[in-house]
Task: structure prediction
Amino acid sequence: MVDPADPRCQLYLITPPALEPAVFAETLKAALDAGPAACLQLRLKDAPDDAVRRAAEILMPVCHRHDIAFLVNDRPDLAREIGADGVHVGQEDAAYADARALVGGEATVGVTCHNSLHLAMEAAEAGADYVAFGAFFPTRTKDPKSQATLETLEGWSAATVVPCVAIGGITVENCRPLVRAGADFLAVVGGVWDHPEGPAAAVRAFAAILEARGGA
Result:
């Protein structure tokens, strides 16, 4: 499970948008051997259901051997079917209540809230385990629907204890202000998998920053 009680900002890994599961499993193992993470979100947009199932069959055991949660993007039905630890839903995906009904009360359910404290409060009051704000920086992973601000993170952290995830173009170089502003998790895609020195080096660098709570 994603641990909302952990006071540190934690790394929230998201898979590349396309991958070969057996090959990526080795990359993932090397990254997780290099440093801590809270979870891996399997995000294979528009992939056939069987491709998602195959990826989960290979990658979920790697996550569990490293004691991190395995989440599925968008599809609470598949998350339940494969026994994932939870699901992340966007504003245009399954409604929070429907996702919760499918995955059950013990699973993690997170909700995208763009740059809206109002949407985040609605999700938190409904029972979401975390809310996600973004995009904070330009990203090639998706076309962002909003530009998120540090003020949103700061306002959320001051108003509630429900954890928040910062997402969108986050790298080792630009993440420190997000940590200092109160992000509980940094959701990272290319900032890890496309790091010039490799994913393991990226995870080690993130770990050092998060341990210092965004300090120099």
User: Anything to note?
Assistant: The chain has nine helices and eight strands. The radius of gyration is 16 Å. Residues 49-65 form the longest helix (17 residues).
